[in-house]
Automatic annotation (TrEMBL):
Protein's UniProt name: PpiC domain-containing protein
Segments of skewed composition (Low complexity): 367-383
Cleaved signal peptide residues: 1-26
Keywords: Isomerase, Rotamase, Signal
Length: 397
């Protein structure tokens, strides 16, 4: 299967969570009902409701708007089956949410749209919607559903739940100061390197460091990590959970202080690392942002659990239009649109928040990174981390 349901589910939910938590703007406009006059035929029926063809087509447009990387999957039967099940889940759960969750979901959806407009400008926002033939109200209605469900699930997470999750993932809240040089498989000019060439350069840099070379100067000269290069390779007082490249993270947690590592291989290339300091963060020293991050991850895990364990019980029929992908029928009621809870990648907080997650992998979660890869910008530079100001962000390292 070309399409990975687990990664897509994490990625789409992550996109929604990230945009939401970047903003604390107040007030919002009136939300609409899930549909007005919709005479299109049902493509899915479930306990207490249905998804119409128009609703489903709008869902596809919104997914492309929110996560353009999934556009290539939109005509795949397997992906469409996943999308309609996701729509069923959010529509069903939002209908059962508390009044407080619905009120907060409405507010957060409005904040989210306000933040999108602020980030790209009103004209560009309208253009992006127009590119997908979307109306702002359609996007708003969808976000109200999603945010309502998330608020409802988050409200079910207790302080004890948060503390237990922290205890299970203490290392993600450690604070470290790290020097880093990345010799990437793609350099700062977007030119590809072979692994052999990257390793050769990394060994040369390590040799220069061993002979007393200045780490900061060598980072500025050689490093392809755009987040730290201009700062002499330094990540100062970063929460360990902000980094999601596992090989890098392991070195940060285990490398003896002030020792320069040998070149460490990852999917990005080769890293040379020196840890200057590393200290624990006790639970009573967590910020509110960090605790809310854990709450959001645990709330998202509850959505995962519903998708895995309960969704098929409420679905009566799915009858999607046929696609060119005849290898998948796109019909039936089996499957849930997600295939695991919290084992993709590792989470990230922002520059001021730590992380946590749920599921099989320590420190991983639904709202964490879906791949554990760093982000490469359109200029070809590699970003080892992404700073956010509120919890819920996935790592870009």
């Amino acid at each position: 299967m070309l399409f990975n349901k687990k990664k897509a589910w994490r990625g789409i939910l992550l996109t929604l969570v990230c945009v939401l938590t970047l903003s604390v703007l107040a007030a919002c406009e009136k939300g609409g009902s899930d549909k007005e006059k919709d005479a299109s035929k049902p493509v899915a029926t479930y306990e207490g409701g249905e998804i119409t063809e128009n609703e489903f087509e709008t869902q596809k447009k919104i997914m492309t708007f929110m996560s353009p990387e999934y556009a290539q999957f939109m005509d795949m039967a397997d992906f469409q089956d996943y999308l309609v099940k996701q729509k069923i889940a959010f529509k069903y759960l939002s209908g059962k949410a508390t009044d407080d969750a619905k009120k907060e979901g409405e507010k957060k959806a409005g904040q989210q749209i306000d933040q999108m407009k602020k980030q790209v400008g009103d004209d560009q926002f309208k253009q992006l919607l127009g590119d997908q033939k979307l109306k702002e109200d359609e996007l708003k209605q969808y976000l109200v559903q999603v945010m309502t469900v998330m608020e409802d699930m988050n409200a079910k997470v207790t302080e004890d739940d948060i503390k237990k999750q922290y205890e299970a993932n203490k290392q993600d809240f450690m604070v470290a100061t790290v020097h880093h040089i990345l010799i990437g498989l793609t350099d700062s000019n977007n030119k590809e390197r072979t692994k052999e060439d990257a390793l050769k350069i990394a060994k040369d840099v390590k040799s220069q460091l061993d002979k007393g070379g200045d780490f900061a100067e060598l980072a500025k000269k050689y490093s392809d990590d755009s987040s730290s290069k201009d700062n002499g390779g330094v990540y100062k007082d970063f929460t360990v959970g902000q980094w999601s490249v596992q090989e890098f993270k392991e070195q940060v947690l285990t490398l003896p202080l002030n020792k320069i590592s040998a070149p460490v291989e990852s999917n990005l290339g080769y890293s040379i690392i020196k840890v200057d300091s590393r200290k624990d963060t006790p639970y009573d020293k967590l910020t509110n942002d960090q605790k809310e991050m854990i709450r959001s991850n645990l709330g998202a895990s509850k959505i995962d659990q519903f998708m895995q364990n309960d969704l098929t019980k409420i679905i009566k029929k799915i009858d999607l239009p046929k696609t060119a992908d005849t290898s998948k029928s796109g019909t039936g009621t089996t499957g849930t649109g997600t295939s695991g809870s919290g084992t993709e990648g590792t989470p990230s907080g922002g520059s001021t928040s730590g992380t946590s997650g749920s599921g099989d992998g320590a420190g991983t979660g639904t709202t964490g990174s879906s791949s554990g890869d760093a982000k490469t910008t359109d200029k070809g530079t590699t970003t080892f981390e992404e700073k956010v100001t509120e919890p819920g962000e996935g790592s870009g390292k």
